Amino acid sequence: MFPIDFAWGAGTAAYQIEGGWQADGKGPSIWDTFCHEKGRVFKEQNGDVACNSYELWEKDLECIQQLGLTHYRLSLSWARLLPDGTTRNVNQKGVQYYNKVIDDLLACNVSPMVTLYHFDLPQALQDQGGWKSPAIVTHFDSYAKFCFQTFGDQVKLWITINEPHVCAKLGHEDGIHAPGLKEPGIAAYLVGHNMLRAHAMAWHSYNSYYRPKQKGAVSLAINSDWFEPLRPDCNEDITATERDLAFTLGWFAWPVFVTGDYPEIMRSAINSQSTKLGYSGSSRLPSFSKDEPAILGTADFFALNYYTSRKVKPGGGCGQMCIKSDRDAEEILDPSWSVCGVSWLAVVPYGLRKLLKHIKDTFNNPAVYITENGFSQIGPLQIEDVQRCEFYKDTILEVAKAIEEDGVNVCGYFAWSLLDNFEWADGFSVRFGLFHVDFSDAKLTRTIYRSGREYAKMIMKYKRETDVQ
């Protein structure tokens, strides 16, 4: 049984749905720049128009109401609000747009969960070093305070940064996300470090200046797969699995929820690899300064993005300094798992339950919101998406078991995504929506998938059950 005030939601991100990339004074973001460079994105696609939610917000709101959501997770475009990334130049048209979105949601009894940063740094700040520069921390804090000040009376659930792991690794080591840098071995750890520092500073600002009046809650969204040893009785596989979890979930959760520092297993693995490769500089994994706001305790709930699971054994090194070598863990798909759409996405609902139990046991039983979870489709369109229906049914059942049988304090579930949208480097080739968007039609018509109808039925059913409690 789900708690009476359980958050039933769906999520989106500004760059993936809004379009209006130059509309009404918006500044460019790193994703605008990245997509306009040749060879970066599937078929040279971009988010210039995307779902055009900047102009078609009312259509999105109809979709939200059709599902019967209690909550909607959206992100703010930093560059739409502050075109050069700083509060010296506020774009009032951007403020009006988000005020309307938030007011409309509340008028329909839907609570907004607002993400400040979902991958789309203002290009003006990237030009000054972006997330690699220590100066980004105060820029982010100023932006966060601006948003708390502007929208905080209406917004009670905040996410500072979405998936810092993805921003750091895919954007600064693998180069397949904006800003498209390939600087293995050091940049990703520096970026992750600055993201944690920025998150902590923003949390402390909220806690000191806004929480007493606004009474909201702030966290950061951490993505992680569930990992288990390939051979459950093999010590090497068990150790590799622990290391893999430390480099994924632990990288950002450990400093915030447990010690105020990175997992020791992560630091020692990085330092050991540095020694092996003859690197003589200071540790590639930075340390937190005692002179800065504390990292520990800067999350009012645990925001989890979960998509899939992996079996793990040692390996995967490449003989150079990079996260893959440092981690020394090879991830394997169990052949019994079905794969949905994209090759990396195996459907493993039980993995979410196990990960939730691990979070409860490791991070002192926090309140947990599942802020992203979804099932992708590629190739021919299937409005009658039976597999996705089964996926949502099975997954929500596992969440119920985590609550009832494992005692995990799960407060909400957000499906990814409300709409088919611009799926980063995959462009429009991958569809996660509960609503199909016809990108070949100038009207960008939204059509509910069968999975959307089924999700709406599940929400209604579980709401009814809690009403009877």
TrEMBL record:
Belongs to the glycosyl hydrolase 1 family. One of its GO terms (cellular component) is cytosol. It holds the Pfam family Glyco_hydro_1. InterPro entries: GH, GH_1_N_CS, Glyco_hydro_1, Glyco_hydro_1_AS. PROSITE patterns: GLYCOSYL_HYDROL_F1_1, GLYCOSYL_HYDROL_F1_2. Keywords: Glycosidase, Hydrolase. The lineage of its organism: Eukaryota, Metazoa, Chordata, Craniata, Vertebrata. This is Glucosidase, beta, acid 3 (gene/pseudogene). Coiled coil: none annotated. The active site is at E372. Signal peptide: none annotated. GO terms for biological process: carbohydrate metabolic process; glycosylceramide catabolic process. One of its GO terms (molecular function) is glycosylceramidase activity. PANTHER family: CYTOSOLIC BETA-GLUCOSIDASE (PTHR10353:SF291), GLYCOSYL HYDROLASE (PTHR10353).
